[in-house]
Design a protein that fits this description.
Blueprint: E1 5-8, E2 11-14, H1 15-27, E3 35-39, H2 45-56, H3 73-76, E4 78-79, H4 80-84, H5 92-98, E5 104-107, H6 116-120, E6 124-129, H7 132-147, H8 156-164, H9 173-186, E7 191-195, H10 196-201, H11 203-213, H12 220-224, H13 227-234, H14 237-241, H15 244-248, H16 275-289
Helix pairs in contact: 11-13
Bound molecules: adenosine-3'-5'-diphosphate.
GO molecular function: sulfotransferase activity
Family: Belongs to the sulfotransferase 1 family.
Pfam families: Sulfotransfer_1
Length: 300
């Protein structure tokens, strides 16, 4: 049953995460120094976690002994609903109180379901989203590999219909992105809203942008020392995909680290979408996002 999705507080929550989301809402006390990477699944979470971790901790590690060389990014930043509040940690509240600051977290929980303490504090949220075409393909390939342990794989057409109805982990995807999008408009110092496509096009700009947003801008000396370039290189798809930990390591008993590194491109959806699928998803995007000011670059 943990592989199924349940409509819970107006979003489709994986059964395995329901208890975690509830405990997160009930027990999490945000600190003003907290940093939370938030995302809809398969939109570039792994990359953003790696970049944020590398930016925040840049004084502590050199390029040669960096934890990102030997750890999957998801193990360096605790996911609130899946890890901290989901049985993995015996006493989450005690664990949270002993974490070094700034505490770095990740979450897939929709903005509207975040605990009040996180919304009201000065904790920072960095959100990443991605064009819904590539997100679908990435999610379909990923979840089929995970489902295969307990449930039969979904055909492309069936998964697509569910995706169009919003029935996908933490979906509907349009509500997820619009929740964070609206908050980033209302409180730009609280939520930094990023797009996977923008990062692919100009990661240098966004690495600086993230550092400024978090209140730790790069100094002129760091810039001239190539600090930004070395973070970009450390977190690049090509580099991370080839690390031993991401080739043969496992995140948990169900998930191989390599599943987080597939193609890492903009526009791979053209290899999967029929003309009628293109029409249907384009119409949904237009309908759901119209008037929001949010739009996407679909091709590289
Ligand atoms: P594809 O399936 O299109 O290749 P998430 O991290 O949210 O699960 O998203 C996974 C997607 O991000 C996958 O997309 C994956 O290949 C891509 N990705 C992972 N690490 C990346 C990186 N360092 N740079 C760019 N893309 C990355």
């Amino acid at each position: 049953a943990s592989s199924y999705l349940y409509l819970f507080q107006e979003f489709w929550c994986p059964g395995i995460a329901i208890e975690g989301v509830e405990s997160f809402q009930k027990y999490f006390e945000a600190k003003d120094s907290d940093v939370v990477v938030a995302s809809f699944p398969k939109t570039g979470t792994t990359w953003l976690i790696a970049l944020t971790f590398a930016i925040v901790n840049r004084k502590h590690f050199s390029a040669q002994n960096h934890p990102l060389l030997t750890s999957n990014p998801h193990t360096l930043v605790s996911c609130l609903e899946f890890k901290i509040f989901c049985h993995e940690i015996h006493d989450p509240v005690l664990h949270l109180s002993t974490m070094l600051e700034p505490r770095l977290f990740s979450t897939h929980t929709p903005f509207t379901a975040l605990p009040k303490s996180l919304i009201q504090s000065n904790a920072k949220i960095i959100y990443i989203c991605r064009n819904p075409f590539d997100t679908f393909v990435s999610a379909w390939t990923y979840f089929n590999k995970i489902r295969s342990m307990s449930l039969p794989a979904l055909e492309l057409e069936e998964a697509f219909e569910m995706y169009c109805d919003g029935i996908v982990s933490f979906g509907p995807w349009w509500s997820h992105m619009l929740g964070y999008w609206k908050e980033s408009m209302a409180r730009p110092n609280k939520v930094l809203f990023l797009k996977y496509e923008d990062l692919k096009e100009n990661v240098n700009f966004y690495v600086k942008n993230i550092a400024e947003f978090l209140g730790c801008p790069f100094t002129a000396e760091e810039e001239s020392d190539g600090e930004i370039e070395s973070i970009i290189e450390l977190c690049s798809f090509e580099k991370m995909k080839e690390l031993e930990v991401n080739i043969s390591g496992k995140l948990d008993k169900f998930i191989d680290n390599k599943l987080f590194f597939r193609k890492g491109e903009i526009g791979d959806w053209v290899n999967y979408f029929s003309p009628s699928m293109i029409n249907k998803l384009s119409r949904i995007i237009e309908e759901k996002l119209s008037g929001s000011g949010l739009s996407f670059n679909m091709c590289s």
